[in-house]
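FORM 7B: Structural annotation worksheet

SECTION A. Query
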Amino acid sequence: MDTLHTRNQMEMARNAHDVGSLNTLREAIASGEDQSALEETAKQFEAIFVQMMMKSMRKAQEAMADEDSPFNSQQVKFYRDMHDQQLAVDLSSNGGLGLADIIVKQLGQNNPDYTPASVIRADANLSSINRNTIEQVQSAQENMLSAAPTKAASAFKAPIAEDQQAFIQALYPHAQKAADQLGGDPKAIIAQAAVETGWGQYVIHDSNGTPSYNLFGIKADRNWQGKQAMVDTLEFSNGMPQKQKAAFRAYDSIGDAMQDYVSFLQSSPRYEKAVSESQNSHAYFEALQQAGYATDPAYADKLKSVYRGRTLNGFQPQAGKG
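SECTION B. Predicted structure
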């Protein structure tokens, strides 16, 4: 077998998914005509070892990941495993851990002074293995785990206001700014926040007790880059309520929540009609429901009821506020 041709074929075997080139490598080993075949085989064994290490890292990562995360799907796992296999081959081909050199010395019998015991020094540290590479792998493992999407912290709902009056008072100045941008009534915006949060008594908090200030039930879709909280929610399907887990947007303040509410409506063609109807609060509520803002079939009626209610209509902004 031509040595140069054999070497080229073996280099092709470094593609983890090329079965044909791996067969060529096996034939080269069987022929015993080329020492480089042993070296390449040792690299393949090292790649297997590295792949096992990476697989262990991935399992630790998956254990920390949210079960509902799109990064935990079977399709993602399939292509990720293919990537890890090739990465393991590439690492071993570029020096790797040094295990390939040990295998060559042991099986090649070219070094009479070499014995398996000489791999480990008296101080129990590895001498023949590339310590820098091991540290790089360990660092990669730490980075993978730190970058892993962790399971959503256990969120809960709690009050952000003592009573209805305190809730309205806290929201009004921010609702006034939002209404100016939308061209509507600030009390209509507060009415929606009251329905979504039970007058501020059921606002999502994270596991540390920090409020999310999610006043309008806006979920954290794939376009949301900010903080979020996973919580149980009640959704209606075919008119029947169903309990589901969902990720909701989280904000640092009431003002941030109000501003995102305005941006959420103005940036979506879905709510274009609602924004255009903002000067008529009842029409605004109807347009929100028609656009699918909420799955509750009585959503618009609930908003109207609160908006017409004595509590909201009897509120007067304090002097110097709003």
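SECTION C. Observations
The domain at 156-313 is CATH 1.10.530.10 (Lysozyme). Confidence is low (pLDDT under 50) at residues 112-129, 147-153.

SECTION D. Sign-off
Analyst initials: ____
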